[in-house]
Amino acid sequence: MSAEAADPAAVPRRRSRPRIDLRRLGRVALLxxxxxxRLPDAIGHVADAHRAHHxxxxxxxxxxxxxxxxxxxxxxxxxxxxxxxxxxxxxxxILAELGAETTxxxxxxxxxxxxxxxxxxxxxxxxxxxxxxxxxxGVTKLEKVDYGAAAEPETFRKMLVATGNDVRVMSIKLxxxxxxxxxxxxxxxxxxxxxxxxxxxxxxPLAERLGVQALKTxxxxxxxxxxxPEEYEDTRALIAAVTGGSDPLAPIAxxxxxxxxxxxxxxxxxxxxxxxVSVHRVRRKRGELRPTDFGRLLVLxxxxxxxxxxxxxxxxxxxxxxxxxxxxxxxPKFNLYQSLHTAVVGPEGAVxxxxxxTHxxxxxxxxxxxxxxxxxxxxxxxxxxxxxxxxxxxxxxPGWLSRLLDWQESATDPDTFWTTLRADLAQDREITVFGxxxxxxxLPAGASCVDAAYAQHGERAHSCIGARVNGRLATLSTxxxxxxxxxxxxxxxxxxxxxxxxxDHARTPAARIAITGWLxxxxxxxxxxxxxxxxxxxxxxxxxxxxxxxxxxxxANVVVDGPESPTRxxxxxxxxxxxxxxxxxxRGGAVTVHRQECPAVxxxxxxxxxxxxxxxxDEDGGRDTAACRVTLVAESFGRPRLLADLTEAIATADAxxxxxxxxxxxxxxxxxxxxxxxPDAAGLPALMRAMRExxxxxxxxxxxxxxxxx
Length: 710
Description:
disordered N terminus, alpha+beta, five-stranded mixed beta sheet, disordered C terminus, six-stranded mixed beta sheet
């Protein structure tokens, strides 16, 4: 940390807070301490920013922290030639402007003293108390983390553990990184790129998770300028071209003010410019930018109900763009963000995006957990405002961070932890699903019933056999949508466990690590007979569970070239002897065996993932013919007793029905999809002939479902 410094004006930004002249602060700092009854000039701007948010704050502790930090760092210089004390001052100013409470600011002033000077934690504890000492110790542990070229898994894991007990530690770290990114140009280009990549991959997503948008947006712009300078310059030129003239959002803002004034709604209407990365994203999404795409309208009101009153007036007096409406007040984001989003068509057809929120919501949207104040201070209104959900009982432990800390304890492999962490942080959208008891679950977009099961039941989800989604039976592979109601169905036999195929449908780290851990602990355990009680009556056949017989982690009747690894038969095409088969390596190193003609194999080849050779064991080698599972699709004309006749034909062939789907008739045609357990693969041709002989059935074929292969 101590080496990162340079010219703070090197990367121009369209919108920024007034910057403090650090060289002037350095000269003031070199003058040394001042009398006890007067606040040092060098920390005066921090005091002003702090009092703006906390008028009754006691500045005495900040005075003492500054005196200790200045005397400890005296003689130390940054690479830019400035006194080192300017760095903790700048970090503390960033946090003060966000509204951090006094304890956080005190720890921020002292955050480098234990690491870089002779000051000890015992001294900090004695002079400033246990809480400040705890925060300084947490930041010191973060400074000892060597990110390396790609943030080594185990060291970042230690960083997460050090942070998790109090997110104010990460708040200080983010402000520290922001100041270092502002002053990064004295570094060699390759070191700038390395620091920027770690900031992009780890710290910016964490800032998003903590809801500190003010830090996140500026970090994004600074990283953008370093890692993609050409696109950055193009975006800067676009913004510069529209900055000089009149703002096209101004007439719409005037109309909104007049509309709300006539409606008797007290509101503040502001024009909020987009930052560089936001403009770049809109440009990539829409191609050609509209004049109003360079900013958004921000409407600030006093109460929650006023937000909806403003929304009603806007949608009544202007033409709304319905597809742009989102309600994050009724369903806040995982990082506490609340706001109404909409877009309206103003005069002359100009479209303006509008954000509507209260002043309190705006403070939390900008500063996230920093705006929550001291999480340990008693809140007299907390008991009245408490909600039944335990998602955020402690402000210093957001729900997502608590979950992250829980599953990191279960991830014994650092590489697995790092891979799943990166995937989790990369999720930029969450959905909310509801349990039948009214409980809400926050899941990443694309999550399945498997993820919901582990989010709600933890290790009890190992015995999950299916689900009801919006009242209809569904397999665990069913992808959930925002607002779905989910009822998880658990088997009475708690000794049963998950199947390897669940990994193909699990998106959350908690689910993937729990499933992998169970499979590793039970390598010879048979999986459940079915992934769900029945297949859902959906628009098309769903992937079903493949045949699976374990022997040392491999399908017993399949030989795959390469090192020993878990092998399973694909549920999308359900291969059986003597089908021509190939293997595809999936997440976790397992190999899924597909039929040669399976569409999943062609898709993998198209994206450059070469299959591995696979074959059935020879007859002489004792091929396992004890059982196989296959999915068949019967196309037929609708008639009475058709289902009974088909199931009778299946039973006559000694096949057991694992699951069945009957789609609604279409033009007198009906499609039946059966997953069947056969005593011997050799009986498959005879079974298909018997099904074709049923009156009304005109075709029986092997299923070819899309598969999750990667």
